[in-house]
Amino acid sequence: MKIAKEVGIYIPEPDGEGTLVCGSPNEVNNDATSIPRFFIRHDGQTNFLKNDEFSQQRKTIWTTIALNGQDQLRQRVAWALSQLFAISPSAVFPLNTEPFLAYYDIFVRNSFGSFRDILREVSYSPLMGDMLSFHESKSTEYVWSTEGSIQYADENFAREIMQLLSIGTIQLNMDGTHKLDSQGNVIPTYTNSDVAEYARVWTGFTRRATRGNIEGGNDGGNSIDPMKIRIEWRDHYPKMGLNGKYIGDGYPLCQDLPRDSFLQKGAEWKLLGKSRLPKEQELLLIKGSLSDGNHTTVKVTKLSSSSALFKELCRPIYGICTYPSIVELSDNIKCEGLECDLDNVKVVEVGTGVFYEFIHHPCIQFPFFVNGKLVSNSRSNVYERSKCVDENWAVAAAACCDENFSGIHNTCKYTGELLTFIVANSRCIEKGKSICTYKDVSWSQCGFCCNYEGYFWTDDSCNVFLIVDENGDVSIDSGAHKSGDSYSSLTFFRVQWENNQYPYVGNLCGNGVCEGVDSYCRCIVEVEETRVFSSLPTREDVLTSLHIGGINPALKKYAGEQNFGDIIVHIENSEFPYGKRTVFEVVDDFGITKFLMNMKSLVKIGSFQFRNTPTFFTAVPEVIDAQYETEAALDHYFFHTNTAPFVALRLIQRFGISNPSPAFIERVSNAFTNGYVDLNAPIGSRKYGDLASTIAAIIMDEESRSVILDSDPSYGSLREPLVKVISLMRNLGYVQTKGSFVTLQGLQDIIGQESYEMPSIFSFFLSDYAPPGDIAMASLVSPESILLPSAIGLVNGMISMIKFGLSGCYGGFINSWCSQKEIISGGDYEKSVGRLTYSATGMRIEETIDDLGTLLTSGRLSSTNRKMVIDRIRSIESNQMKLQIAQQFVISSPEFHSTGSTGK
Description:
The protein is of the alpha+beta class.
């Protein structure tokens, strides 16, 4: 039984065979007996609806919520966000209902939450994976090893997540104006090289297995749940991001994490249910050993019922374990029994047949090192399938050698245990043996350790080689590179060469410092670790000069601590308060507390050098490390100085002001950055990226509310066509008279805009679109003007709704045939499925026009237009006709179609 994170309790002994299947976030139970109902497609099969009827369902649901939802501001924000993170049905499977709803729910759920959560959920969405083609993108190394061809990671999403979803293409000040270089030129936010590096982050993503309670496509694929990462497809090499910052900068070294971190405050444990091992650990076992469900060859550490960790994971109620899906330790706890002997914890058994996985803290390794040891995953030939790794990495098992150099793997404490070289060798010494460069590793006398096909340590010292191309990009030859293979098949990545000087074939590989191989230089490296500061630095110096994370004092006891206000110094050795192991605690410009070690690691090749490149991966990569790397990459976009003004401008535009002043943008940017806005009482979480404060800053700003600005010709915007249709229906009391749901059909063709019908990743209009003429000449923009060719269809459709209800008559918004001969005059609703019910009973003409002006133009109907409407309808005898004509005049007025000056 597999339990997802959202499930709060686990039943260890179900009454019968079956699987507990998860729902989507906030999903409620279906009532299968209710009528009417929506239909779903499963494996592409249905007997109920035609294709166009299926694609209509999601739009009907959107319209129903837009008209009737009580959380109108949330829905309005969600609509705006969905246009920032647009997906087009033409790029994904277009007929399904539920996948589109699940994607849109990301924005409904996070409308007043964190922009960071939206970035994450969108990035893991299978629909976005299809939309921007990174679904099942694979690393160069994987494609070469399996297909023998060179293929690079798909760059589509890597480009668009920056260009359209987070930071834009030009560096911005907080007020949205462009930053300029010394020559007065704009400064790009990223380069094509940045895109290529980030593209390697977006490898390995694929759909999860389908589940029985969701709608599937033709292939039965799961287009609802967040994508998973196939670790073998992932690019495992270092990646330099924006502004020379590596993905992994600021994270601590894995080797520095405390041995008992699984018992420390903040340690996270995930319920595996009855699965003994996570999938990546199963890869270390003998293939097929678990296929029959026989787990007798797999040993997992079983906790004593008296241990503190057992009690934390069991969480008993009335003596019965509840087994939460996720457990985060709220305090440090002590080990007991077998727990005290564990060196690298993976899975523990709680009770009988219930297993938890320890989710280790995010940490990095350096791929260039000096204490290299050879590991091999061949039991018969130590130099077959071998590579050079850092002896401090927990990536291999102990093969303890006898005097004949025959190895036995019998010191593991659980099946598939991985150790550092030092721990592995100490285990062997306890047995009177040692690690060696073995001739073979026996399959006997190893008990539950036998079921293992991973790497074994040897005592053979080794070096990794640095491969440099003509551009200064580098790759790593750790010994796994096959003889005869071209270095062009390796994965190259950027490094920060000091003074931009590096060995390459053009300078004879540094005048002989390195060996020339074809068009590359092959170099032996040295690694130097030194301290950075010998006295107290400034906060700014700490943030700009230190790149290696330190261990949070919540996980480690330091020898001393000194508080200097904006810097707290955690001292490793009291005799050397500013040694390289000293950790500085500071708060960065985004309000995030950082722990940074007073050390730099330099890779040296003769007189050439660069900063060592962090990576989340070792020789045995795990899915959790790929997830941590993905989170770190998202932080590059989120914690960028462009993000606040970029998001601020686009949200302001979606809320009715195309050309906000720099001061307005800056106020909203500050709300996004500070996480709150003070409107008599503070609104927001006080965390960077808070959308509640951002939206409040927009709609409550004086620039959004001042009537004086109505006379400024650059103020306001054209209203979105779909917003105008919904506004008409809500404000004039639309009521459905036939059928159960409100269905608007063909809007994309009629008015140029429709829910779930974005034509491309650019949504319906471009943020910087300026129609030819006065607007462009004034250096202003009008994004919605791009849809002006559909204005006639929009007005005709709304007039049809006023006169004949929601029908297909005279350009109406549903696809039903209506003979013009059957319609004599307005007010005939026979062909309609619903109509507007606004009534002016008891009101004078002037009061009616004022009321319509309030409802449809927010009270902005000009005195000229007000008088014109009154004069035109005063002589009409029929009250119904009088009201309909008045409504038609008002929805045809400039004030209804725009939020700014109408020139009158």
